[in-house]
Amino acid sequence: MSLRSNLQGFVGLEYTRHMHTESIERWVHDHTFGQDRKKSAEHRTLIVIVITVVTMTVEIAAGIAFGSMALLADGLHMGSHASALAISVFAYRYTRTHAKDARFNFGTGKVNSLAAFASATMLALFALAMVWESVGRLISPVAIGFNGAILVAVLGLIVNGGCLAILGGHGHSDEHKDQNLRSAYLHVLADALTSVLAIFALLFGKYLRQQWLDPCMGLVGATLVVRWSWGLLRSSARVLLDLQAPDDLLGPIRKSIESEGDNRVSDLHVWSVGPEIYAAEIAIVSSRPLDPDDYYKLLPGDLGLVHVTVETHRCAADVREAL
User: Fold this and answer.
1) CATH 3.30.70.270 fits 247-322, yes or no
2) Where are the domains of the chain?
C-alpha cells in the first residue's frame, strides 16, 4: 500500500475517532449540580460562628461565676450551636471543593446531610450534660448572683437576635432551598428561646425567691435541644438512607409522564442528592414509547430534578390497559 493511501487511512481513522468522541461528549454531563459555587450562606455562617463563640465564652464564665444554671445551660447551648455551625461551614467548603470529584456518583450534596447528622448527635450529648448539671443543682442548690447573670443573659439574647438577622437572608433567591442554612437559622432561634428561658428563671428567682426555677429552666433548655436534634437526625437520616421522596414530588412526575399518549409509570424512584435537588429513575410501559428526550421535556422544571434516568418497555395496548 502506498504512503499516500496509508496517510489517507490514518486521517480517516483520526477523523472518525474525533467524531465519535465529539458525539459521546455531547451526552456526558458533570455531577456538580451547582454545588461547586460558593454561597453567601457560607460567609454569613462563619460570621455568626465568631460572634457565638465569644458570647458562649462569656455566658459560661458568667454562669459559673454567678452560680446560674440557666445561664450556664444557655452558654452550653450556644456551644452546641457554635459546633453545629462549624460543621455547617466545613460542609459548605468540602461540598464546594470536592464537587467535581468523580468518586461521588451524584455529587457532594449529601455532605450537608452528613454534617447535619453529626451536628444532631453532638447536640444530643450537650443536652445530656445540661440535664446532668441541672439535676445536680436541684439536689444541691447554689447561690446565684442575679444582677450579673441577668445582664449577661440579656446580652446573649441580643447577640442571638443579631445572628438571626445575619442568617435571615436564607429566604432570598435560591438559598431558601438550602436546608443546611435553614437548620443553622432554626438552631439560632432555639438558642434565643433558651436565652428567654434563662432570663425568665433569673427574674423569678430574684424577685419571687423561686430559685428552683433556674435549674428547671436548664431542663427545659435541654428538652429544646433534644427536640431540635431529634428532628435534624430524622431529616438528615432520610437523605443519607436514600428514602423515597414525598408524594407531593412523586405525584407531579407520574402525572406529567402519563399525560402523554398511553404511557404508564411502572416503577418510580426519586431520592435526594443534595439540598432540594433530586435524582430519579423512571420505568415506563407503553405500546408506543417516546424518545428519552421527549420524556425529559414532559417533566416539570420546578421539581429540582438534576439527574433523571428513563427506562422504557414496549408492550401491547391491552397489556398497558391492565397496568
Assistant:
1) no
2) 40-240, 247-322
- Output the CA–CA distances (angstroms, integers) from residue 235 to 75, 88, 117, 255, 260, in the order listed: 26, 15, 9, 26, 35
- Angle (CA) 212-197-138 rounded to 5° is 20
Q: pLDDT of the chain along its 323 residues, tens only?
A: 444 444 344 344 444 444 444 555 555 566 666 666 767 777 888 888 888 888 888 878 877 887 776 667 667 767 777 877 888 888 888 878 777 777 777 778 788 788 878 877 877 887 787 788 788 877 877 667 777 778 877 887 888 888 888 887 544 444 445 667 777 777 787 778 777 877 887 788 778 777 777 778 778 878 877 887 788 788 888 888 888 888 888 999 999 999 888 889 999 999 988 777 898 999 999 988 888 888 888 898 888 888 888 888 888 655 545 55
User: Mapping DSSP to helix (H, G, I), strand (E, B) and coil, where does residue 142 land?
Assistant: coil
Q: How many CB atoms lie within 10 A of CB 302?
A: 7
CATH class of 40-240: mainly alpha
